[in-house]
Amino acid sequence: MTDLFWLSGAEMRRIEPYFPASHGVTRVDDCRVISGIIFVIYHGLHWCDAPRDYGPRKTIYNRFVRWSRLGVFNRIFIALSANGPNPDRLMIDATHLKAHRTANRLLKKGLFPDVSGAPKAVPTPSSTPSTTARADPS
User: Fold this and answer.
1) What's the total number of domains in the chain?
2) 138: exposed, middle or buried (C-beta count within 10 Å: 0-12, 13-18, 19+)?
3) pTM of the model
4) Average pLDDT for residues 27-38, to the nearest whole number?
5) Domain that includes residue 34, residue range
6) pLDDT, tens digit, 9 for 90 and up, residues 86-95
7) Is residue 87 part of a domain?
8) Angle between the 57-70 and 30-43 helix axes, to the nearest 10 degrees?
9) 137 half-sphere exposure, CB direction, 13 A CA radius
């Protein structure tokens, strides 16, 4: 794959102070793993679809989960955004829509409100069932 994302040396030096200390075992190459995390998130991939060039997929996933729980990525984001200009507005969009396979059937059955804005057909008196009581023939 030629369109892989790699953090530059300058970018790594900016975020390295926020990495947690390694306890005992030496960590796998931080640049490779962090670049893999950014690539997966940017492209909206599943962790199992991460390119092999970033290392073992389980390592990328585990590092993301562990550092997310420790707040490492939040601290990096706060530090990097603090160095920029102070805009009047900040907008972050993380919209993800997932429809269940039965969602369309609910609309067809009338169990879900129609928000399309299309005018609804008004039943005519001839098409509505009669509410008058009929005599029992027996």
Assistant:
1) 1
2) exposed
3) 0.61
4) 92
5) 26-80
6) 778 777 776 6
7) no
8) 90
9) 0
